[in-house]
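C-alpha cells for Globin-like protein 9 (inferred by orthology to a C. elegans protein). Go.
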Amino acid sequence: MDYPKGTSNLSNLQRCRSLRSNNGKPNAFGVSRLGSGSGKSRSRSRQMPEENCVIRNMTSSQKTSLIYSWKAIKPNANSLMRKIFLELEAVSPKVKQIFAKAAILDCFAKESSESKIGTIDEHVKLFTKFMDDVISNLDKETEVKCIIRKVGQSHVVLNNECSFQSNLWEHLGEIAMEKICHLDAIQKSRETCRAWRMLIAFVTDEVRSAFDEQVRIARRSSIDVQKDSTDDGDFCDKMKNIQVHDDEGPILKK
C-alpha cells in the first residue's frame, strides 16, 4: 500500500489502539488490516480515562486544520463516501448483502417511502452529513459524542436481523482513514493528516463502543430475535429506525 506524501514517519506516531485487534498488526495509518478485527475485541473507549478524550485533547491548530480541510473536501464528499462504502462492500460480503437487500426493498417501495434509507445511495449522503455535523461541533465534546454514539446505537437492529458484527465498524474506519488520508487536501500538512487520523479513530471507537453496549443491553433484555423469523417488511421497518444527527435536533430518523 502506498504511504501518504510527507508521512514517512507516520508509523512512529501513536497508534490508535481502538482500531486494533489483539492479533492484527496496524498498517501505515495505525489501523488493523481487514480480517484482524474481532467482534469480541474490547472498545478502547471503555478502557480509557475520561481525561484522555481525543476531542478534548485536540489543539486549536488541529481543530482548525480539520475545519479548513473539510471545506476543501466537502464539494466532492459524496464521491469520497461512495468509494469508502464500495470498498467496504468489496471486503465484507455481509455489508454487500445488507445494501443489496435494502435496494431490492426500495424497488418495491413507493416514491414517498422512507425504505430507501438503508440503501448505499442514502448512506453516502448521510455519512457526508454525519461528518459535516462532527466537524461543525468539534468545540462541543458532549454533542459530538452524542452524534457519534447515536449512530452506533441505532445500528443494533442489524445485529439481530443481519448478524452485523462490531468489527465491521473497524473495517469502515480503516477504509475511511486510508481514503481520506490519501487526499491532496490532507497530505498538504502533517498536522492535518494526524488530526484526521485522530478524529477517525475516535469516531470509530465511539460508534463501535455504543453499538457493543446496545447489543449487550438488547441481550440482557431478552429482546433478541432469530434472523430467520424476520420477514422483509420487518427488516424495512427496522432500517427506518436507524438514526443520525440533523440540524434541528440531536438525531434524525432515517
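Strands lie at 243-246, 249-253.
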